[in-house]
Design brief:
Layout: E1 8-12, E2 23-29, H1 37-44, H2 48-54, E3 65-69, E4 78-85, H3 92-106, E5 113-116, H4 124-136, E6 155-159, H5 163-184, H6 192-206, E7 209-213, H7 215-220, H8 224-230, E8 238-245, E9 254-264, H9 273-276, H10 284-298, E10 304-314, E11 326-328, E12 334-336, H11 344-357, E13 362-367, H12 371-377, E14 382-386, H13 389-402, E15 406-408, E16 426-427, H14 436-445, E17 453-457, E18 463-464, E19 474-475, H15 480-489
Parallel strand pairs: 1-6, 2-4, 2-5, 5-6, 9-10, 9-13, 12-16, 13-17, 14-15
Antiparallel strand pairs: 3-4, 7-8, 8-10, 11-12, 14-17, 18-19
Bound molecules: ligand BES and zinc ion (ZN) (2 copies).
One zinc ion binds next to loops.
Amino acid sequence: MVPIDMPRLTVTHEGLVQRPVDALVIGLYSDRKPSGAAEAFDQASGGLLSQLLDAKELTGKRYETTLLLAPPGVRARCVLVVGLGPRDELDSAVAFRAASAAVRTLGARPRTQVAFDLAGGWSEEQMEAGVCGSLVGGTGSDLYRAQKKRTPPAELLWSGIPSEVAQRGQTVARAVNLARRLVDEPPSELYPERFAAIAQHVAESCGLACDVWDVPRLEAERCGALLAVGRGSARPPRLVILRYWGGAPDEAPLALVGKGVTFDSGGLSLKPTDGMKTMKCDMAGAAAVLAALQAIAQLRLPLNVIGLCGLVENMVSGSSYKLGDVLRARSGKTIEVLNTDAEGRLVLADVLDVARQDQPSRIVDLATLTGACVVALGTDVAGLMTNNPPFGTQVQQAAQTAGEAVWPLPMFPQFSEQLQSDVADLKNVGEGRWGGAILAAKFLEEFVGSTPWVHLDIAGPAFLESAKPWLDAGGTGFGVRTLVELARRLPG
Ligand code: BES
Ligand code: ZN
Ligand code: ZN
């Protein structure tokens, strides 16, 4: 895998309006009153912003970017005005996206130095999110194009940000870009063994312990559900276990579990072309877990974390698992397979059981698990399901601070009735298609025992089918920022 290109980051306490840079980024709120650096630029340029505001060329609408070439009164070669929306609605999500949109626009040309002066009045969380966004938006998803659509600037200069805050933003950005890259790589390049090799490389470079279970080990561990899903593929499955011990030696770890289906054809319950064409994204949960562990280790957070990535390719062949098969999961529960496209829950059934072996204090799993979750919440919001509502609230608050949207779905007990099978302990799908996201979560709940557990269904936000102003089409790195923020808040 080619290294991920990211700009160099420098912070300064000086205002940047008079710096001789390639581009200066300033922010404008939708109240259309230039403040901070925008006001300083307006004065220096003899009222250019005010004129453009009067002419309604500038609105301050969120993520609107307007490039002013050769502006008067400053030494920057161009000024980019980015819309920040309503002043009192600025949060981490807006800060991230505005900075990301600015650098994405500027990335259309190679640039050496881009200066950001828009964080006046921002909280530290918002500053960190802004720095993070500015290091993410310039990295494109056109990995295999000879003519890149975008090049990140060589250097970013941020004004008015404490250097530890900037550094945190940079560490998290590196992780978000890693998760994005893993999702963007085509399935021909990224299959279970490759993912595991990359995980080992990441672990070595940031001091994580890393165990990889191959097929004989998975067999010895009786991971019958995960192995069944992987059986139809020429690419054998793997389970990656990462360990970070930043807390007391005997403190119970936080367990992070990721669905890592490196390609989901649906198996014998084959997906149609339209549903299959983005299924390289079906390992986004595992990518977020690996990336979050990298960031947690680099930030030296004072807690213990284990990360588990269940890696399989769901394919069609003479050895594929079949409808009617009964699998024995690692926990001992038997599962009747009635749809081979509901494979993520089978993989996670075993991985959650392995996670429990380390007696974690809490488990969070991330999975591109159901299309039903996308129907329920749209493409921007992850579904949150839990067996422990206070822990669910904690995760939701971490997501809010990090600038990622998650929303709870209810876990009513009556859903479980649909999972009763006549021949086995459970079946892997219900009768109809309603409430599919919750049903999948109820299935997973069977494998977590009494450990406080949160399931994030990221099928919607993990992958952008078309570009947004702040990000290219492709992997988004969703979940990384939430997991890192959660790890910062725990234990407690
Ligand atoms: N990987 C898919 C879910 C998915 C859909 C992820 C859209 C990202 C975008 C999952 O394995 C799947 O196919 N789920 C089935 C479950 C059904 C058979 C009960 C689905 O959602 O249709
Ligand atoms: Zn599937
Ligand atoms: Zn899947």
